[in-house]
Amino acid sequence: MPVEMIRASDQGVFLSAQGSVVVYEKERLVAIEAVGKAVLVCQTVQSTLVSAETLAKKDKSPVTVADFGAQAVVISELLKAFPGDKVVGEEDASQLRTPEGAAIKDNVVRHVNAVLPNQSDDQILAAIDHGTYSGGARGRHWTLDPIDGTKGFLRGDQYAIALALIENGHVVLGVLGCPNLPVDAAQPEGPRGCLFVAVKNEGAVVRTLDDPMEKPVSVTDITDVSQASFCESVEAGHSSHGHAAEIAARLGVTNPPFRIDSQCKYAAVARGDASIYLRLPTRADYEEKIWDHAAGWMVVTEAGGQVSDIRGEPLDFSLGRTLRDNKGVVVTNGKLHDEVIEAVRTVLHV
Ligand code: AMP
Ligand code: MG
To answer: What's the CA-to-centroid distance between 283 and ligand 1, angstroms?
Structure first.
């Protein structure tokens, strides 16, 4: 075959020179690059935060700037490589198009141009608005949370840039940029910044933000649930801490809960820092958003873990922008799943 790599289609599957199928190779590279650039935007903005002061003034504008900036960067990068692709993103640019939003818009434009030069205001706003796709079961689309865990971001704590590719309603690729996650959980004061990548049926890997060397990750092999640690949201409004404590007591779990913001919780289970992640509804009417789970789902699933809702049902990413048929989320190392779900169902009466 004269050419090194034959494009079998514009997207998805490629044939290598040897004729073997390389799935989502280009998507993987582009997604890693896009998330890496968005991480730079978020890090720059976060480094300018004087957290206590910002929080005291309840000034949310830094997180707003980073949120919009990261969404603009990721979508611009995706569209450069895959011009026809659709994106379900958390943000839209309507606020930036108002007179009151002009100052924030200027800031967004400045931060985006620092990593993607020569982007006009209009190009940046259009890229952000490209994230308004409705999702669903047909064709392919990306889903993006430009800053997952905004409360953690404002505290100077954990947050994630989460990007996933969904084909016909199924997640097939996930990238989680975790700029503040310690590289080694055993050394919380050591170097920080991890990027998790997973492609369906190809396993999950982690790398640091500045070194492309990838290392496989896998969940714990704990089978005795009383030895497990579980993670949950820092924000009690996002997941019921009280119910989690009841479930832990029922399972004989004595390790204290490990509370971190964002999809870093999926990453923590994927690399074995914890064996369980509980996200227990605090309101009956809340619908989980696909961008809050798709990338984490892929990473933990490919690391050997299992994800379901609180009744043990698989997450259904084919229904649009939310997981409207699911309630809450339970993640485990797989081996503990049935036992954890039984306890969750008993305590929550579902
Ligand atoms: P976490 O950092 O895990 O607490 O999750 C942050 C995400 O929680 C945000 O991206 C929101 O989309 C989502 N969220 C907001 N309100 C709720 C709620 N009532 N229940 C569950 N998740 C929520
Ligand atoms: Mg989020």
So the answer is: 11
Ligand 1 site, CB within 6 A: 148-149, 233, 235, 237-238, 261-262, 282-283, 286, 289, 292
Q: What is the mean pLDDT of residues 35-63?
A: 76
Alpha carbons 323 and 304: distance in angstroms, whole number = 22
Spatial strand order in the sheet of 215-216? 86-89, 140-148, 160-167, 170-182, 192-199, 204-208, 215-216
pLDDT of residue 11: 54
Are 200 and 173 within 8 A, CB to CB? Answer: yes
HSE-CB of 152 using CA atoms within 13 angstroms: 26
Q: Give the pair of three-digit tokens for residue 98.
A: 């108002």
Integer-rounded Cα Rg, in Å, for the chain is 20
Find, among 128, 122, 150, 145, the residue nearest to 45 by Cα.
Answer: 150
Position 203 confidence tier, pLDDT thresholds 50, 70, 90? very high
350 by Cβ neighbours in 10 Å (0-12 / 13-18 / 19+) ranks as middle
pLDDT number for residue 23: 87
Is the predicted pLDDT of residue 7 greater than 60, yes or no? no
Question: What pLDDT digit, counting tens, does each position of 239-290 carry?
Answer: 999 999 999 999 999 999 999 999 999 999 999 999 999 999 999 999 999 9
Question: Residue 150 catalytic?
Answer: yes
**What integer pLDDT is reported at residue 57 of this predicted model?**
53
User: What's the token pair of residue 214?
Assistant: 């990838």
User: Please, are residues 229 and 252 in contact by the beta-carbon 8 Å criterion?
Assistant: no
Sign of CA dihedral 326, 331, 334, 338: negative
Burial 282-298 (b: 16+ CB within 10 A, else e): beeeeebbbbbbbbbbb
Q: Name the residue of 153, 238, 297 whose CB sits within 8 Å of the most ligand 1 atoms, as the mutation to test its pocket.
A: 238
> So what's the pLDDT on residue 5?
42
- Out of 150, 220, 322, 332, the active site residue is 150
| Residue corresponding to tokens 């404590």 | 245
254 belongs to the catalytic site: no
Kindly report whether the global pTM for this prediction surpasses the value 0.90.
yes
Please give the pLDDT value at position 21. Answer: 59
